[in-house]
Specification:
Elements: E1 10-21, E2 26-38, E3 43-47, H1 54-62, E4 69-74, E5 77-78, E6 86-89, H2 101-105, H3 107-111, H4 116-129, H5 145-157, E7 163-167, H6 175-192, E8 195-200, H7 203-209, E9 212-216, E10 223-228, H8 237-240, H9 244-271
Parallel strand pairs: 3-8, 3-9, 6-7, 7-8
Antiparallel strand pairs: 1-2, 1-4, 4-5, 9-10
The structure holds adenosine-5'-triphosphate and magnesium ion (MG).
């Protein structure tokens, strides 16, 4: 019998993406025959060694790039361009330095002619949720790295996107701030239940955050493992660290990533100097 249920929130079908590398005068196949379905409300972490194509996948879903082959779908419809239904957060917060926290957060709806009553009340909610109360009138230079990234996340979330795409958003933060940010992100996600694709190369971060961890091979990136994370929510590291299942899962993922990193390094050595 045909499956008449709703399509996955995000679907990549046999996606390949190549780039013309002008410097080396050759084509780089970033991703090859990559297929993945992300269900509505799922928190998925995409994990893989450097250069395996994680950002490429995210940029395809964001609509910043187009696949060379295959299809990228949102609610069953091809993604043709970026849109407000997909919020994006990068490693660098990329705030407007001359705007206040409030004006940065409300930038999208203000530009799209949103109703001030609606976007100001959404902004107030996310300012509270992201722990930014009292900083509404501050400018980015007055904020710590973690706070800037909280502003960037609030900005991506206030439009209530169908999907939130985060590309190593905590990669530039110190270890302690990073843990706090992970906890904060999950707390807000548990209320909003937005479908999340979170790119990281940090194994512990992926296991702590995700419902599912998708592990990629070295370039050209393909899906290597698709792991369901069995731990109940809310999670905390103090309970996870001594848990035998956590220790084993971490070992398995580290092993897999290491294998791919070694492959990647030997590939690069074979390619000669850039
Ligand atoms: N616009 C581009 N032009 C040329 N090559 C590109 C472009 N974007 C990505 N690539 C190449 O595609 C491959 C995958 O890149 P991508 O940035 O997706 O990897 P990544 O997994 O996000 O890496 P990292 O962990 O370092 O962020 C790399 O070899 C990269 O050099
Ligand atoms: Mg990247």
């Amino acid at each position: 019998m045909a499956n008449l249920g709703p399509p996955p929130k995000i679907e990549l079908r046999h996606v390949s993406k190549s780039f013309q590398d002008l410097k080396r005068g050759r084509e780089t196949v970033a991703v090859e025959k990559f297929s993945l379905a992300v269900q509505d409300g799922e928190f998925l972490c995409l994990l893989g060694p450097s250069g395996c194509g994680k950002s490429t996948i995210l940029n395809l879903v964001a609509g910043f790039e187009h696949p060379t082959k295959g299809e990228v779908l949102l609610d069953g419809e091809p993604i043709l361009r970026p849109g407000p239904d997909r919020g994006v957060v990068f490693q660098e917060p990329m705030l407007f330095p001359w705007l206040t926290v409030l004006d940065n957060i409300t930038f999208g709806p203000r530009m799209n002619g949103g109703r001030p009553e609606a976007y100001l009340s959404a902004a107030a909610r996310y300012i509270t949720l992201m722990g930014l109360s009292g900083f509404e009138r501050h400018r980015p230079y007055e904020l710590s790295g973690g706070m800037k990234q909280r502003v960037a996340i609030a900005r991506a979330w206030i439009t209530d996107p169908k999907v939130l795409l985060l590309d190593e958003p905590f990669g530039a933060l110190d270890a302690q701030t990073r843990l706090m940010m992970q906890e904060l992100l999950v707390r807000v996600w548990e209320q909003a239940r937005t479908t999340v694709v979170f790119v990281t190369h940090d194994v512990e971060e992926a296991i702590f955050l995700a419902d599912r961890v998708c592990l990629m091979t070295a370039r050209p990136g393909q899906l290597k493992e698709d792991l369901r994370i069995p731990f109940d929510r809310p999670r905390n590291y103090e309970d996870l660290v001594p848990d035998k299942r956590y220790v084993e899962l971490k070992r398995q993922v580290f092993h897999s990533i290491r294998e791919e990193t070694i492959k990647f390094m030997s590939q690069d050595a074979g390619a000669g100097p850039a």
